[in-house]
Amino acid sequence: MPQRDHYEILGVRRESTPEEIKSAFKKMAVQWHPDRHPNDPAAHERFKEINLAYQVLSDEGRRGMYDRFGHRAEEPGSPFGAGGPFPGGFVDISDIAIDGLLGDLLGVFGVGKGDKGELKRDLEISFEEAAFGCEKTMRYERVAACGDCHGSGAAAGSAPEPCGACNGRGRVRFQQGLLPIAVERTCSRCRGTGRTVRDACASCRGSGLVTATESLRVTLPAGVEHGATKLVAGAGNRPRPDKAPGDLEITVAVRAHPFFRRAGDDVLCTVPVTFTHAALGGDVEVPTLDGKGKLRVPAGTQPGTVLRIKGKGIPRRGGLGRGDQRVEVSIEVPTELTARQRTLLEELAKEFGEDLQPQRRTFMSKLRDLFG
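Above: the chain's sequence. Below: its structure in token form.
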């Protein structure tokens, strides 16, 4: 089966910019990520295809070789392919490091290219906010362009100059031995920026970057679960003054509730009732997400019985109603009795007798059968 064109896989034009290619990859990678399709082998293969296309087109050297030779440049036998010793026609010795060889944008497959500015932060919300959705303002720190020099690193009245060592490219390339292979590395003088500063900015000391405190308004939908993530494009760190900022990944942390637990779209809670209430039946007051409510406890309710309140759970996605609230009944046994209360209970126990208690009678019958 012939390989599909990398540009077609990502849905981009051959003249697309690196930023357009990266944006297209992010959208498709999220759509076809294996975590979203755990039992779909076809989706896993699709994700690998998308990832391979991005790895080729996001690398200037490999993209150039692909544009000239097509998939032949990426064949296993090609020394200039992804698996070859000289991908793109040159050796980039600045990437020969453990951190440079592991992980890609999503942490799986492919070859990484260093820090891309991705940032991760937790956002804590209450149980009720997770149930009904909310808007939260979160403050966090990130690396941003210096406001005083606008990321140039130069003091007021001066400007950066092209680096003389790399002629403004940010990388230097040289011939190694007799082999027709160019060895390339990051320029050590300008650290890959292609510019040098004579008179440095006092705020950022010439780096063009500072630590800034940001305020971000985050909207969370009704029914959001603990551990859910939200990606905010461009809200992460700026790895270099001449590079776009990375993305911010927000992880939702739902605080524990004193009464409620969650099971899907249902809300669970435990309500203690007295022995007499369970025996005689009646209404009890219970907490709900909408405030206080009343629940009818039938006469003869046993410990551990679960009663259901319709439509008092978590709002379902798409606005299709709500789950239920499940209330587990816990029988509360008094620990301190007055003399009269003890006498009354003893009389009640004699009145009941062993034969009048079905669970007790069944238990004793099984016990006699077990021990003869």
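Residues 161-196 form one domain.
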